[in-house]
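About this split. The held-out portion is used to measure sequence recovery: a designer receives only the structure tokens and must propose an amino acid at every position. Recovery is the fraction of positions where the proposal matches the reference. Here is one held-out target exactly as it appears in the evaluation file.
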């Protein structure tokens, strides 16, 4: 009898980022503001920018002011393509 070898696919870790919850008014959805800092290419000054992500929070655990870790996931809705990984710091 010939044995067949199982091929297990190696999925890379999902892209994770850390941000602050700015809204938890929706059911199973939070809005997370993520900051990034970079040096301006011409002037050399450090510039801060932010982006808001709609994040799927299936247990409604995160509240406004909490710092959370989020990861990209399959699209859950039109706006949500990130999922809550864990709450890092409670407000």
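Reference sequence for scoring:
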């Amino acid at each position: 009898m010939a044995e067949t070898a199982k091929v297990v696919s190696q999925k890379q870790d999902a892209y994770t980022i850390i941000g602050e919850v700015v809204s938890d008014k929706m059911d199973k959805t939070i809005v997370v503001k993520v900051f990034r800092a970079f040096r301006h290419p011409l002037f050399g000054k450090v510039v801060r920018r932010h982006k808001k992500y709609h994040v799927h929070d299936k247990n409604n655990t995160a509240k406004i002011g909490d710092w959370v870790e989020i990861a990209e996931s399959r699209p859950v809705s039109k706006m949500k393509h990130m999922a809550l990984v864990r709450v890092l710091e409670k407000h």
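Annotator remark: The CA atoms of residues 46 and 55 lie 28 Å apart.
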